[in-house]
Structure formats: C-alpha cells, structure tokens
Amino acid sequence: MTPAPASLQLVRRYLDPSRETFLRHLNVDSGSFNTTVGTAVMQRFQDLAAEKNLDEFYGCAPQSYQWDFGTYSPNSPNHILSFYMNTVVPDVVITKDANGISKPYIVLLNNGFIRGPIYAGEFTKDDVFASTPYKQRFSVLRVPKIIAEKVLDLLDGLQGDTGAATSSSSVASENTGSPEASFSIANGLTQGYVTKDSCVAELGPGDDEVHAEPGLTISFPPQFVHSRSTDVQSMGRYDLVDFVTIARLEDRVWRAVSASIKYHNELSKVWRLGKPIDEIEQTAWQQYGNVDSSEAVKEYAKNPFIGPYGT
Questions:
Q1: How far, CA to CA in Å, does 75 sit from each of 17, 82, 286, 298?
Q2: Could you tell me the pLDDT band of residue 5, with boundaries at 50, 70 and 90?
Q3: pLDDT single digits (tens) 213-248
Q4: Checking CA distances to 117, which of 61, 63, 94, 240 falls within 20 to 30 Å?
C-alpha cells in the first residue's frame, strides 16, 4: 500500500445545492450542463403543469409570508401561520349569518397542514399545492368556554409558549417582498447557511460560498396554534363556543374535552364551586363551513373585496 504524500491535506466544502454551484465546479457553461435525459424530464414537468393548469391565477400577494425562515408569534405580520389564523380563517373559514355575523369561535390547528411559504406576487394554483397541499375539512364541536380554554391551556403547557418558535438557532431576519427578498444582498453577499463550528481552524470555514452573517437558520412554529374571535372574551364561563379544528384532530380534541369535563366535575363536587357540565358525545362533531384547509387561501385570494390580495 502506497503511503499518502506528506503534503496531503483534508479540507471540507459545504455546497449550496444550486445550478450555479454545479456549473462553477464542473467548469462548464449552461448549455453543456444540460443533458438529454434532464431536458426530457423538465419537459415532462412542464407538460404536466400545463395539463393541470398550475398557472391558473387567483390573486396577488402583497408580501411574502415565511414558513421556516421567520420566527412565529401569534401576531407576526410575516409568518404564514399567523396570516392564516388571523386573516384567512375569520374572512373565509368562519361561517356567518345573513348579516355577516359569526358565532363566538375558537380555532385550533396543527402546523402540518401548511407546508411552505407564500411569496409576494402572483398567487396561482401551483402556489396552493406548494403551501397547503392537503385537503382537510373543518369540524366544529359546541363546547362550554371554560372547557375549551382548559383544552388550550393544557396544549400550551405541554408544548411550551405558543408565542415562541422551536428553533435550531436565531433567525437572520424576517423579510418581506418578493422571493428574492428572502435572500437579500448584504455587503455584496447573499443570505444563506453559515458554518460555525470547532473544525474551522483545521479544515477551513467549510462554506463553498461565503454568505452574509449571521446566515439563515430554520425556525419552526409550535405544533399546535390557536386563535379566537374577540367576543369570546366577554362570554360567560359556561356559554357555548364553536370549537373549530380540522377533521384529523377530532379524536384528540374530543379526548381532551372529555377529560377536562371529567376533571372539572370532580373538582366542582369536591370544592362545591361552579356547576357540573354534561358530557359531550364524540358523535357531536359536525362539518364546519364549505371550504377545506387547502381551498381557504385560494378563496381568500380570489375575493377582491377582502384582504390585501388583489388583481
């Protein structure tokens, strides 16, 4: 076995998975990079997009709503979950009477039904598939306010503060505007992942392309988020509220509601406070509204009379 030369050095390079990166390292032009097979695959994608009418136009987003590059808070102006819960839900999902008035409601959703950001500019059928690909109907259970709030308190306690995202590290910034604004230029450098570890001295900085500090990091919202109508605050503790969620969460919500009612009744009896609450059957769930979780943003974008979207 031939020994390695004394001058052999080990270095590392983390490559940005982009076309530009591969072109630079292969030292070829764009035309030479394309292969017959690759071109054929791209053509199939383009044909499928045309067949499914993925360019169908619904409206224009006035700004970008981030998914994993922005810190979530219930009232964040730049996070897609906050936008969905605080704007899309009350305008499109919540049912209203002939006078435009809704019953008091609490909405509980998990973060999994949204899978990507919405970028400023045209909002098309393709964007619907990218951001909310799964069709899940909404369901409602009429629950005393005191029980609904106990369920939310329990979930918040189990997952931590809903106003703080679970994050691998701090986020560089919350950007708005076009998709390119999410990777804006700073001092001539683009935003991207920046390697920081103990190997820098021996193996080099690691990054094939130097990005602006502090670099992009991934930040995820809590697993469950909730919102409510403003009139819930003034309701009596035992008044019924619409507890709205998606169908796949029905069983878990009902179990939490049932356990909360049982616990409430036991404490009410022991301490002789409050009043007992009747059990709620699991069959009491009903379909809520006429749009599903995927259609909601589309319907919001198509309506020229509400929200910041427009044609």
A1: 33, 6, 29, 21
A2: low
A3: 777 777 778 899 999 999 999 999 999 999 999 999
A4: 94
